[in-house]
Q: What sequence folds into this?
């Protein structure tokens, strides 16, 4: 494929991700809004959120000014090597920043200097895998700093929470993370959770599980039950949207697991804000997008 | 209710937790770098007397020689907790717009100096950008980069909820206390 065609498609992917929310997220927000009392601050927050979703799409401008860490997963077929993809994606990123689909959001960690084009060491954050077929599949997520800052990791046992190395312990950690976040992560939030792994792989898997659709059901019946229970219990905490108080604290919990070493038992929680920007597509070698993975 | 410039102590003291306000006048963005800079003794490039500081790193691009605000929602305010109160007192900042609320130190200063915390809806960058009707100027952009600069925004009916007032009330403290109680009973 011509590099320019790839770049153009990637720019459109970035644009859509920044300005549109997937339909599963919108449905979940609508359901949350219906639960809040008329005239409450929580209802007001939902009204503004809903108006914002519509406006961003129509104006083709970022839903949220914090266009976040750019997290990219690419399944590469034989016709597209890593270097080619990286180059095309970086060019698309710089262009998206220039026209305002993305904020200048990449800062040198030592000097504090903003690169101005969202490029730099680790930025964007790429994850490459080999595709089994001939198509190029790209998934991406924009994860803002507010929700990243309230993401957290527990090492069990945890005496403060009375959390042992079992699913009850996991439940206590996840509920605590929702409590600690209050309104700081732009709730109502969605939690991606990984049980096990090491500290690094745990966080990565926690974020990856956010690629699941909000209304799907976990294949593992034990985890499906736990996910449902935690959403219900967290909503009973009354933190509410923006931490204003209210009935909707979480829109969803998605739990996955990774094997751990006997000595470690981590619970990693990736908090995602309501402005849950994820999208993706399947692209043929001829440069045609055959499918959008999270239609709005 | 309308909150129009000039933002006097009298107007601010009349606000209470739960009030929905619409702000009209000039507000200044300022976030992490600006707060640290002022705290470390940096000279403010604008007059902050009776001002409103907006915790926001907007997306602003230049189109045909003119600044255009593409997105301008609030950022998390808690990071400015060490600096906010003393800066309110030192420079006469009357109100802070942000999200997620602030802590007991800022609440104390709100009481002392006649200040208020206004919670904008996090993530609502389009609804809020729509209320920015003009960019009057930008300061410290070279030094700190565009998101961390001080942008002077002329706003018209910019909406926010009072969540911390000058009477010692904080919605955030209340929600934290209530939800912590419920959490304890869930854990048994």
A:
């Amino acid at each position: 494929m011509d590099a320019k065609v790839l770049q153009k498609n990637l720019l459109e992917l970035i644009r859509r991700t920044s300005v549109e929310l997937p339909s599963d997220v919108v449905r979940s927000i609508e359901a949350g809004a219906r639960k809040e009392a008329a005239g409450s601050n929580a209802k007001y927050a939902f009204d503004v959120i809903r108006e914002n979703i519509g406006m961003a799409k129509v104006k083709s401008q970022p839903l949220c000014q914090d266009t976040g860490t750019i997290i990219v997963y690419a399944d590469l077929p034989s016709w597209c090597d890593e270097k080619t993809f990286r180059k095309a994606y970086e060019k698309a990123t710089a262009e998206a920043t220039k026209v305002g689909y993305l904020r200048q959001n990449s800062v040198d960690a030592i000097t504090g200097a903003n690169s101005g084009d969202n490029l730099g060491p680790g930025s964007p954050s790429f994850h490459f895998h080999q595709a089994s077929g001939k198509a190029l599949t790209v998934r991406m997520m924009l994860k803002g700093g507010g929700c990243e800052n309230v993401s957290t990791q527990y090492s069990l046992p945890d005496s403060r929470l009375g959390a042992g190395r079992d699913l009850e312990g996991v439940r206590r950690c996840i509920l605590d993370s929702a409590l600690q976040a209050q309104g700081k992560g732009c709730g109502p939030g969605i939690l991606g959770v990984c049980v096990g792994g090491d500290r690094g792989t745990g966080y990565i898997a926690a974020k990856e599980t956010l690629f699941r659709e909000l209304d799907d059901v976990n294949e593992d019946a034990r985890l499906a039950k736990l996910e449902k229970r935690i959403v219900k219990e967290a909503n009973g905490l009354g933190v509410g949207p923006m931490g204003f108080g209210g009935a909707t604290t979480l829109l969803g919990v998605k739990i996955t697991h990774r094997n751990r070493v006997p000595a470690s038992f981590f619970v990693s929680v990736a908090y995602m804000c309501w402005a849950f920007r994820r999208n993706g597509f399947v692209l043929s070698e001829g440069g045609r997008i055959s499918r959008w993975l999270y239609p709005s | 209710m309308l909150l129009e410039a000039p933002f006097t102590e009298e107007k601010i003291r009349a606000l209470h937790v739960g009030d929905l306000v619409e702000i009209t006048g000039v507000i200044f963005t300022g976030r992490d770098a600006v707060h640290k800079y002022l705290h470390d003794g940096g000279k403010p490039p604008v007059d902050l007397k009776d001002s409103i500081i907006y915790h926001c790193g907007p997306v602003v691009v230049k189109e045909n020689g003119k600044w255009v605000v593409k997105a301008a929602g609030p950022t998390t305010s808690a990071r400015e907790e060490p600096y906010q109160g003393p800066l309110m007192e030192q420079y006469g900042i009357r109100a802070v717009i942000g999200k997620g609320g602030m802590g007991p130190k800022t609440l104390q200063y709100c009481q002392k100096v006649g200040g208020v915390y206004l919670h904008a809806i996090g993530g609502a960058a389009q609804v809020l950008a729509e209320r920015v009707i003009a960019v009057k100027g930008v300061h410290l952009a070279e030094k700190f980069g565009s998101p961390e600069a001080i942008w002077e925004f002329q706003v018209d009916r910019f909406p926010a909820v009072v969540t911390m007032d000058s009477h010692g009330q904080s919605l955030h403290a209340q929600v934290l206390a209530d939800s912590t109680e419920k959490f304890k009973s869930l854990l048994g």
In short: Chain A has a mean pLDDT of 97.
